[in-house]
Specification:
The protein is 34% helix and 19% strand. The protein is of the alpha/beta class. The longest helix is centred in the C-terminal third of the chain and has 25 residues.
């Protein structure tokens, strides 16, 4: 027997509870709105923020002269001419206020002589990146925001909700229809304003640094609701994800803090430095940007100069044992438990999918083209152009989350009631309740096949032939997926969850591949081996909309923003 839909009504619905979603919920509630904060996993413990170890880029100027305009200059330089510059300016200009607010909330930014200290990171012209410590910044940020969410009146939290589709009433988004994994029931949420803060798409790749719910859900939801996506071809790969020897219970991107603090040398199989071949001499300092580092490692592997497991060596053997222990004592002990002594052994590293520069097109108030729909955090496309500057991700989550919450609250307070959403939810409810097809493919195998396709053919180095092959594979998987969910619609039906995931992931993957196919140049994180040069005519953003026959892609010139240096 079908379970009756659960009806919920709120002022502001926030989908996703990473840093951006939690900050948005806090800001909307502080403005006097009722907020429903939902997630497919545990509130405040999924997404990317909780897994981030490193630093937060912000021009505080506490230890030395700095100004947001300098931060903006570095952000635009990293973006290779494609940044949505008003968004970039918002990120850099409002970042300090969010960092100070987080400080007041007790996050515990590292200090020196009573001042918040800053570290240097690649692509920045001066030390600018704050941190809690070099291995726990993300967890500390998440814990602080969870605490504030719990203490803020007006916020209701609910996990285990997989959003199937956004509700559309008279051309406006009016909430969402969800599948409640615990009970199998449809849940219809009516809201005056809806914020999508579901993060990026790194789950599309076999090796990635984020949690398993980062499959591009928000992009697909927004696209089906009528909002355009932008810059979908730009996937950032973190160059030094751990490869070998095996690590148990440790983050694959753990080596970045070591390079921040101690340098570390990238070496090929002959234990020779190699980044000078790609324009950045290896001096033991961490100066190589992520796109160049990724390119350099892959090229060394292709030239048969890679490490045994298909990457490069990262060596700290030149660092005295006492200095390693002073900087990372407890971590050194955990590495020893894994049989790794950094004074004697170089580890192997290789690129790993880490972040997505593209996303939903939005203005500086975080509004999309569809009234009632806002976005926040990594779900927003364009602020980082073709390559994100190190440290900008958490800053983006804070600033865009805060702005989205503020805008959503203003919209909600101007409305007397949420639009009636009963009829609008019917199609999604029917999908949730539908009986499965007779012959169901193995959904886990389909997910693995998609990840293999994206990793092998739509990775850091692309060609027209690879992209064509990827489109064919995505088409086959889409046909196999069909239009009826797998599983029996019962409680915690993982086959049905896989189907909803694949529905979104295949749409988003197609967007990445089609945009990458059209961009016949190399720029930032998008590298075409058959078009190796950056070409001035491609200083354009690609905009994707859902058309009657699939995805429609157009180009729009990226426009500069005049900012006076301070």
């Amino acid at each position: 027997m079908s379970i009756e839909p659960i009806q919920v009504e709120t002022d502001v619905l926030v989908i996703g509870s990473g840093a951006a979603g939690m900050y948005a919920a806090i800001e909307a509630a502080r403005a006097g709105c009722r907020v429903l904060l939902i997630d497919r996993s545990l509130i405040g413990r999924g997404g990317a923020t909780v897994m981030a170890q490193m630093t937060v880029a912000v021009a505080l100027g506490a230890e030395g002269p700095d100004h947001w305009s300098h931060h903006l200059h570095d952000t635009l330089t990293a973006g290779r001419g494609l940044c949505n510059e008003p968004l970039s300016r918002l990120l850099c200009e409002q970042g300090p206020a969010c960092i100070q607010e987080m400080d007041a909330w007790g996050v515990g930014w590292a200090r020196k002589d009573g001042k918040i200290t800053s570290a240097f990171a690649p692509g920045h012209d001066r030390p600018r990146c704050v941190y809690v410590d070099f291995l726990n910044t993300g967890p500390a940020v998440s814990k602080t925001l969870r605490t504030v969410v719990h203490k803020t009146p007006g916020i209701t939290r609910k996990g285990d909700l997989c959003v199937v589709d956004l509700l559309k009433v008279d051309g406006e988004v009016a909430g969402a229809t969800c599948w409640h994994a615990e009970s199998g029931a449809p849940v219809v949420i009516s809201a005056k304003a809806t914020i999508v803060a579901t993060g990026g798409l790194t789950r599309l790749y076999r090796r990635n640094s984020a949690s398993t719910n980062m499959g591009g859900d928000g992009y697909a939801l927004a696209l089906r609701a009528g909002a355009p996506l932008i810059d979908m071809e730009f996937v950032q790969f973190f160059p030094i994800g751990h490869l070998a020897p095996r690590l148990i219970g440790m983050d694959p991107i753990m080596w970045d803090p070591f390079r921040y603090k101690l340098g570390g040398r990238l070496l090929n199989k002959d234990m020779e430095p190699f980044t000078d071949r790609y324009g950045v001499p290896e001096s033991g300092k961490y100066v190589i940007t992520r796109d160049v580092g990724t390119y350099a490692i892959i090229k060394e592997v292709e030239a048969d100069r890679g490490s045994p497991h298909g990457g490069a060596y990262l060596s700290f053997q030149h660092v005295p044992a006492e200095k390693l222990r002073e900087a990372f004592g407890p971590v050194i002990d955990r590495l020893a438990e894994n049989g790794i002594d950094l004074t004697q052994t170089a580890v192997e590293v290789a690129p790993i999918a880490h972040y997505h520069m593209g996303g939903v097109a939005a203005d500086v108030a975080m509004r999309t083209e569809v009234p009632g729909l806002l976005v926040a955090g990594e779900a927003v496309g364009g602020a980082n152009g073709a390559n994100r500057l190190s440290g900008n991700a958490i800053t983006e989550a804070f600033v865009f989350g805060c702005e989205a919450g503020r805008t959503a609250a203003a919209r909600a307070k101007a409305m007397t009631a949420a639009p009636a959403a009963g009829h609008a939810a019917r199609a999604a409810i029917d999908l949730i309740r539908s009986a499965p097809p007779k012959d169901m493919p193995n959904s886990a195998e389909m997910l693995a096949s998609l990840q293999a396709t994206m990793s092998d053919d739509v990775g850091p180095l692309r060609t027209g032939e690879k992209l064509k092959r990827a489109l064919g594979a995505i088409g086959e998987l889409t046909t196999a997926l069909g239009d009826r969910p797998f599983g029996d619609a019962g409680a915690f039906d993982m086959q049905r969850l896989d189907w909803f995931d694949l529905r979104n992931m295949l749409t988003v993957a197609r967007g990445v591949v089609e945009a990458a196919t059209l961009r016949t140049e190399s720029r930032g994180a998008h590298q075409r081996e058959d078009f190796p040069e950056m070409r001035p005519e491609w200083r354009v953003n690609q905009v994707i909309r859902l058309g009657d026959k699939g995805l429609d892609i157009t180009q729009a010139a990226a426009s500069p923003l005049e900012v006076a240096a301070q």
